[in-house]
Structure prediction request, 320 residues.
Amino acid sequence: MILGIGISVGFGYLAFRSISWQDVYEAVKKVQPGLLGASFLFLAVSVALSARRWQLLIGREEVHWLPTLAALVVGLMVNNVLPGRLGEIARAVFLGIRTAVSKVYLVGTVVADRLLDIAVLVLFALLLLMTSPAWSDMSTAVLIAGGSLLLAGVGALLLMKWRGARWLVAPIASRLPVRLRGWVATAFGELRAGLSKGRPWPVWLALSLLSVGVWSCMGASLFLSLLAFGIHLPFWGVGILLVVLNLGGLIPSSPGSMGTYHWLAVTTLGALGIARAEALSFALINHALWYIPQVIAGLVILWRANLSAWALSGEPRALR
Prediction:
């Protein structure tokens, strides 16, 4: 948490230093609300498609789309207000409470869900690397980071599929109190099932199409937000910004990628020839476009369920 906050403060300083706030204000005044509204609609569709994809990954008949969507929104909210990507745990716990499906199993499906996102972004980044006329060193660094995490995730997935994987936890379980040993063994089995569950090819096809749909909507949302500020980028420019902003989110930072998001946007747009004040005004408004609705919607859902963010992600027993 301390490392993430420190990185956010440092990147925030780099994003905001030597900026003319009058120029930022003038750029914000020119924004077109209609295009921002359309951008938000595409964001909402991408979240809805993400919920459907996660539902397919879970693969349980008792898990319906609407509770899955609510859990996903709660997870996004928790990621925006608490450090350490706790929202990924929170959404699994929330859905487990609502459906009585094993929470640890759901955590495994969350990991698989995030790996799908990273895989799509890395593949798209490689395509851009081969075709775009402008590719910065920072974009390369982000691609390397995302690719490394993807390889680590795939390695963990293959390890989980190994029949002898359960013996990996045996030395750890043997050192625990007796009352915890059975839970650890059961939890490992459920995590393994959620992460490495076999799925037929029609499901994988649907998952692939949904992943393309999720990131196509995210790209359309970004394109419309840029147009709302009068920023006209070619397809490959929008693609580079999409990849950098989202793979760059893997950098440890404060909740909601405060500071880090703005520095990534300003630096990437600057490399594409956009003035800093114009780029920062876009970063501020576009960040608020998804941050504020996610926090409000997540809090409303938690309030209606009589739960709290800490109850979902702040205590180890939440997964039991």
Q: What stands out?
A: The longest helix spans residues 276-305. The chain is about 75% helix and 0% strand. The chain has a mean pLDDT of 82. The chain has one domain: 2-319.
